[in-house]
Design a protein that fits this description.
Layout (H helix, E strand, L loop, with lengths): L1 E9 L1 H5 L2 H20 L3 E7 L12 E7 L2 H13 L2 H4 E9 L9 H8 L5
């Protein structure tokens, strides 16, 4: 499974909207999310970021989604843009393909990721 994590926080244009406009926009996102679900998107969830950890952002939120391929990540990211998300939220998009969840010697995964030769 390919994972897309969108780390985001509201920008000035979002804050300029009144409460009714904010709610209308948020409701409009339902069609985009549900269309993605129909195309195979798995919504893993949304959360406020915990700012109490060292090195954590002071503010922000995250949405985490799963798809079958890197191609689908790019397709969903286009949908995010079509939904005018980037007009209202400053975002950092992270696409990953996790591995090593059952590795008993995790250093091997780190070595592979960092290009360190293993004996």
């Amino acid at each position: 499974m390919q994972i897309l994590a969108i780390v985001w926080h509201p920008n000035a244009k979002w804050h300029a909207l009144n409460e009714k406009e904010k709610l209308e926009y948020l409701k409009s996102l339902d069609d985009y999310i549900n269309g993605g679900r129909a195309a195979g998107l798995v919504v893993l969830g949304w959360s406020q970021i915990d700012p109490t950890l060292p090195k954590a952002p002071a503010e922000g939120f995250i949405g985490v989604f799963g798809v079958d391929s890197q191609e689908q990540v790019h397709e969903f990211e286009k949908v995010v843009g079509e939904a005018r998300w980037y007009e209202y939220f400053d975002s950092t998009n992270i696409s990953i393909s996790l591995r090593g969840s059952t590795e008993v010697e995790p250093h091997k995964i780190y070595a592979d990721l960092l290009g360190v030769a293993r004996e």
